[in-house]
């Protein structure tokens, strides 16, 4: 079900909130500066003409008058220049207003408030945020998450239907021919290493956990190829245990927002976790990743179409022109297909196509 049009969604956040205002302010300042610049020479010429006339008519009589007129003209010109310079300075100060506020030292309390406000804004924009891997049980999500390393969720979703159909249970995969598995997961890249990991997981689940994927962090991270990130994805989305998923999008965005300067995913996870109640961790992760994939891209963030501009200290890192920024969006609300072949029922976009479909 489509909840709103692309233009509606985009206009709500960026253009209305700050982008539009800023542009309007800059335009106003530019017009004023131009008018002042035009007036300055005009005033100068008028003053000069006045001076000449006075000089001619009072020649020999009032020799001090021209000097006075010249001084008046000069002071008018100086005043005009001063005004123009002041307005230019004001315009310069106004342009990076969003960034300037956050460049000032921010107390922990202010940071917590700003971070939670960003989360609330994202919750409105991405009310349908969800994990973008297709899965029906913890076993499928665990395997899909391992396969998603160094590739897109879309590619994983296009690959796993064949894998799960051939090996529906951990014991099936544990007893598989590795070469067959390699062929099935080849489209996800690094297929030999990934085959070892997922077959190792299947054996460990079969032998050590009675065929069921464990629901505890300390057990999950003992499985081959499973780190904290993978474990939190599984815990948060298959077991309902709150967890923060620090993937490449999450790390990039929280650093842009100055929630933390850490680059190590475990440290990022702890720093961000300290800003939010546990109950928010899983949904926050989805929203941040959605925002990173759709608007705040790695190389070309669409700042001019971003809903959290006033809260972002990195505003201006990407395109600020609303029209140009809108063209950078990768957004389901604009009719683009999502990553999942089987998205949740409330997803407002199109499902992704199967592998090889046009
Ligand atoms: S960097 Fe730009 S696109 Fe990213 S969150 Fe900030 S304002 Fe939005």
Percentage of β-strand residues:
under 5%
Rg, rounded, reads 30 Å
Q: So how many helices? A: 15
* Global shape: globular
Number of strands: 0
CATH architecture of the domain at 138-295: Orthogonal Bundle
CATH topology of the domain at 138-295: Endonuclease III, domain 1
The low-pLDDT segments are 1-74, 83-97
Main beta-sheet annotation: none
CATH class of the domain at 138-295: Mainly Alpha
The overall average pLDDT, rounded, is 80
Helix content: 55-70%
Give the helices and strands as they follow along the chain.
HHHHHHHHHHHHHHH
Structural class category: mainly alpha
Q: What small-molecule ligands were found?
A: iron/sulfur cluster
The CATH homologous superfamily name of the domain at 138-295 equals Hypothetical protein, domain 2
Head-to-tail CA distance between termini: 23 Å
EC number: 4.2.99.18
Domain HhH-GPD: 147-294
Family: Belongs to the Nth/MutY family.
Biased composition (Low complexity): 30-63, 71-104
